[in-house]
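Your task:
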Amino acid sequence: MKKHPVFILLLAIALLPVQQLCAWGQKGHRIIARIAYDNLTGRARRSVDNILGKEGIIFYANWADEIKSDTIYPDSYDWHFQDLDAGLSDSALIATLTDYPAVGGNLWRATDSLTALLLREPRNNHALRFIVHLVGDRFCPMHTAHIEDLGGNRVPFRWFTTQTNLHAVWDTHLIESQGYSYTEYAAYLQLRYASHKADILRRSRADELRYNYALTEAIYAYQTHWDGNTYHYIYRFREPMEWQLYCAGITLAGLLNTIYR
């Protein structure tokens, strides 16, 4: 039986210890995909619509999470995160982009490999679905968080009256706290941050990672003196969360515009 190219690709990516995760959550990934779709060139939009169906990158934005319940891509679980040690120097941090860490996930390796695959095979349906999702994961702070607590999964957190963990707060609770639908949130973020689009597209992967890592470290630092008031937490981190969602959408659009130019 002929193997699907994505199946062959993931055989080259090591299976690491499993981590409970769900990326940005369903709404977050749809927000990112909606922003990306709205910022595609005409040629890129026609191409991705032809492969996934009209607005398919939005409807398939969570497919990479859902497929983990199947056996078709058994090793893709650790593609979704790249947990890092605390207190990395700048040089050590940036080195992870090319000298892929041996532990803590395979997000860098997966996005690089899938991008290369799409450049060779732009009509690869499953590779496109994966890249739509995984680029979004790059911008979720708890997907580039600390190895020792499994990306915040082992950090207890009381969200109003619900006992949860830090990972879930950033996947879902912060986004849901604003009460928007994914279309409303995507529209709002594009209106608010449109003037920054060009700067985001010019930003290097290294600068992207520096900002994301700094935000992650700020989140951990806040845990040490947070007063436990959920409203105070929302006030502190709503805007950084929204910025990450917008940056993810614009970065994804830039990548797809390059692949389908």
Summary: The first helix runs from residue 5 to 11. The chain has a mean pLDDT of 92. Residues 197 and 250 are 7 Å apart (CA to CA).
